[in-house]
Amino acid sequence: MTRPFSPFKTIIEPFKIKAVEPIRMTTPEERKGILSQARYNMFNIHANDVLIDLLTDSGTAAMSSEQWAAMMRGDNAYAGSNSYYRFEAAVKDLTGYKHVIPTHQGRAAERILFSILGGTGKVIPNNTHFDTTRANVEVSGAKAIDLVIPEGKELRNRHPFKGNMDLLRLEEILKDAGSGQIPLCLMTITNNSGGGQPVSMQNIRETSAICKRYGVLFFLDACRFAENAYFIKLREAGFENSSPKEIAQEMFRLSDGCTMSAKKDGLVNIGGFLGMNDEDLAQQARNLLILTEGFPTYGGLAGRDLEAIAQGLNEVLDEQYLKYRIRSVEYLAEHLSAIGYPMIEPPGGHAVYIDARGLLPHIPPDQFPGQALCSAFYEFGGIRSVEVGNAMFGYCQDGKEIPSTMDLVRLAIPRRAYTQSHIDYVIEVAEQVYQFRDTLRGFRVIQQAPVLRHFTMEFERISD
Length: 464
Ligand code: F0G
Hints:
Layout: H1 28-37, E1 52-53, H2 65-72, H3 82-95, E2 99-103, H4 106-117, E3 123-126, H5 131-139, E4 143-146, H6 167-176, E5 184-188, H7 201-213, E6 217-221, H8 225-235, H9 244-253, E7 257-261, E8 272-276, H10 279-292, H11 303-315, H12 319-339, E9 351-355, H13 356-359, H14 369-381, E10 383-384, E11 386-388, H15 390-393, E12 395-397, E13 400-402, E14 408-412, H16 420-435, E15 443-447, E16 458-461
Parallel strand pairs: 1-10, 3-4, 5-6, 6-7
Antiparallel strand pairs: 2-8, 7-8, 9-14, 11-14, 12-13, 15-16
The chain binds ligand F0G.
């Protein structure tokens, strides 16, 4: 007898837990004091005082038993370590690049790349530069420009590939540029600053072709490459039957190199790399690497870190993992949306971005509505989120706030670290905060640094 059977709807975490880390419970009363001591800056709160930490998905992944086992095999030879060769083989298998240069994290790869290719008068396009990428481009003296498609800037536009590059604008800029003025074009997959939105294979292919035509190198900022590959499988015609690995390999094949923070889709707590095909560029990069990061077979990492990356790059492309990963972010977004939270739609691969300015219209941008929502999530639920708004992108000129264009709050989901009941708790907290959103108040800055102010800013609450 055949029994009726329909596939189960619940997408379970495709792993079981072997090591646990306790979460310290705190009360709203305690957290009120902690917040005020931290001067309402989420970066000042001790992790021990946080129940659910959604500050970032970077370096916060839980490693697998295979990664811990690989770490025991770590070979810490200064030169020519076995671990380097295993790491190099894993990266080459995935990317096909001729040269693989380990770095301690993504921004170290960026600094090396732009020290060579940047400089005064140069222009570096990207769909949207992440803040460390922009900072490293600008420190070199070059100009960083963002060319994401217009749909990518519309919060509620449900375009399937909101991270795509605006190809017409890219071509215009390349046509007008002086010889050598644009040495390199980047593409961030997924586009973190634009809401973790993916880029289609077609857009990667066309960007690559345009760059080739103008003799410009085309690099990926690849830290969330596996999430991008899975979105292509889900959303782009012709890739339904390809594996995430085949899709990722094709993305890398279309590029001349990448910067990579392995703290995201490398499933590790530290590490990154720079990959490329150009021999000359690789030689220059290695020379700089030796100066500040270390010898080219370890680049600022221990042998065990290289082992963990090699294994992580393999695990992250597992289809069951990616299905669970993308679904768990979508699950959070669906529930928050049902409560009434306005947000970037559709949700990205690693995070939900709430539109705090839309949620709290009674708090003007110069009183930091994103900050008000972050503080409420922490005070009432012990949830740490991050403001991506006026504190991060606005600035102060002659004592006056020049606000950013949006005030978002990012809930970034660490990989494999939390279960569905943790996410259900976040939803419950968000539901309560939503009920009394009209009572939330804005903030006034009491101290700030001239650059990257959000990390160290201090606030006080504006009372009625
Ligand atoms: N590029 C992108 C797109 C990133 O999201 C990050 C880091 C980096 C480069 C830099 O990598 O931290 O290893 O030096 N993003 C983290 C975040 C910090 O919270 O989104 P790193």
